[in-house]
Amino acid sequence: MSDFLIIGGGVIGMMTALQLADAGQNITLVERGVCGKEASWAGGGIVSPLYPWRYGEPVSQLSRWSEGVYPTLALRLLEETGIDPEYRQKGLLYLNVDDDGAALRWARQLGKPLERVDASFVHQKEPEAAAPEGSALWMPTLGSVRNPRLGQALRARLADMPNVTLVEQCSVQGFIQRQGRVVGVDTNQGEQLAEQLVVCGGAWAAQLLEGLNVRLPVRPVKGQMIAYQAPPGLVQRVVLKDGRYVIPRSDGLLLVGSTLEEAGFDKATDEEALASLKRSAENIIPALADCPVAHHWAGLRPGSPEGIPFIGALPGFPNVFVNAGHYRNGLVLAPASTHLLADQLLGRKPLMDPTPYQPTAARLA
Hints:
Elements: E1 2-7, H1 11-22, E2 27-30, H2 39-42, H3 57-67, H4 70-81, E3 92-95, H5 100-110, E4 115-117, H6 119-125, E5 136-139, H7 147-159, E6 164-167, E7 172-178, E8 181-187, E9 190-199, H8 205-209, E10 219-229, E11 238-241, E12 244-248, E13 253-257, H9 271-284, E14 293-303, E15 310-314, E16 317-324, H10 330-346, H11 361-364
Parallel strand pairs: 1-2, 1-9, 2-6, 3-11, 9-16
Antiparallel strand pairs: 3-5, 4-5, 7-8, 8-9, 10-13, 10-14, 11-12, 12-13, 15-16
Helix pairs in contact: 1-7, 1-10, 3-10, 4-7
């Protein structure tokens, strides 16, 4: 029997496993597919909420702490696995910001470098970017990570740790309760038992917890994205305009996203979204009109009220914990949210006040 059973092998589940394994615990992680292949793979990898000043303090707290973790985490994983998560800290250009005053006030309050810039500055930083039609902002400290490779690196590291067992292609069919206590799960590969359970099922977390008659207000929100294969160096940093973004990779791949669709668990792509994403891409980087679209895909975000994740023990089930509902910011918030949960699991002083994230009866109502 493991100390901890983690259900869900996305970035949240894998970082939880890594933190617990680093603390000497024995972990089994079960994933219905392959670790790191759902929302963790499908996103863009910006290590910040798109417009961070528009979020409330619970999300901002997690984001601020997580942002500083990624440079060290990426280096660690590269050294341990040989897989480079490609953390890049080249800043972000915001074009056409209609609440720049609020953004600058937010930055001053936190001591964050953020400045209003003109078209010549934008052209200097990104010669191929369209000139801003309104206010433009520059945040030099923002970074991004190549999230599919981050997932590969986390999976490789966990697979090499003697106190971690990865069980993939493993579907949870129900919870096992004995003498009023949850002791594990039934799966298509047999029983998995543990002292404590952690549900990190992303958009599927609510479905999983229905087996305990727990109503978790987390729903799937589809996001479609595309990627161009462009000449390396065409774009050097993240550029954001009118809610859409272009994210460069070192090999010339340029990600463009994303849609927000209430479509249940449907992950199909469609021509309407493709055309919309292409228009946005060419409005940001006009030269992309001459580049081919190499990929088009969709993922499912775990939507939640106000985008505030649920982190903590479930009411009535003191050994069953949840870490889900990060909405568009799963990768952004992962280091802090998993650290905060590990603090609770191990009885450590919490990284921050856990109260806003607890899955209390009031939040689950």
